[in-house]
Amino acid sequence: MKSVEDWLSSLKESDKLIVVEGIKDKRALENFDIANIITLNKPIYKLVEDIYKTKKEVVILTDLDKEGKYLYKRLKSDLQRFGVKIDNKFREFLLRETKISNIEGIRI
User: Fold this and answer.
1) Containing H/E element for 38?
2) How deeply is 35 buried, as exposed, middle or buried, from its count of CB atoms within 10 A (0-12, 13-18, 19+)?
3) Is 68 strand, coil or helix?
4) Residues in Cβ contact with 7 at an 8 Å cutoff, skipping those fewer than 6 apart
5) Nearest C-alpha neighbor of 62 from the set 26, 97, 34, 31
6) Is it the case that residue 93 has pLDDT exceeding 90?
7) Three-state SS for 87?
8) Alpha helix segments (H runs only) across the chain
9) Domain 4-100 carries which CATH code?
10) How confident is the model over 35-90, as pLDDT tens digits?
């Protein structure tokens, strides 16, 4: 991935489940025709159980602020305990290659 456009295209083409913090984040990604998005709209333990049942690989796209980083670590740890595979490349791209700090702020 070399640009945000490439990033969005790769995310759209993946069959992975995408976890975002809120409805604004979900809508921002849906504006780029990205599907398979769920929000943190329930306690983390319930969300982890629901995700585990899907048997899908997960992309965690919480915001890159203090709260988002905490949620990311907690979700990653809890999901991995259930054997769910986490794809970090999308999050790492945002951290290393962009100045984007929240998912709802993605623009091209």
Assistant:
1) strand 37-39
2) exposed
3) helix
4) 1, 90, 93, 94
5) 26
6) yes
7) coil
8) 4-13, 23-30, 44-54, 66-81, 89-97
9) 3.40.1360.10
10) 999 999 999 999 999 999 988 899 999 999 999 999 999 999 999 999 999 999 99
Per the listing, tokens 């945002």 go with: 94
SS3 106: coil
* Residue whose token pair is 């048997």: 55
Mean pLDDT, rounded, for 3-18: 92
Whether pTM exceeds 0.90: yes
Place of tokens 């993605």: 106
Q: Where are the domains of the chain?
A: 4-100
Give how far Cα 95 sits from Cα of 4, 26, 89, 99, Å. 12, 19, 10, 7
And the tokens for 68? 């988002």
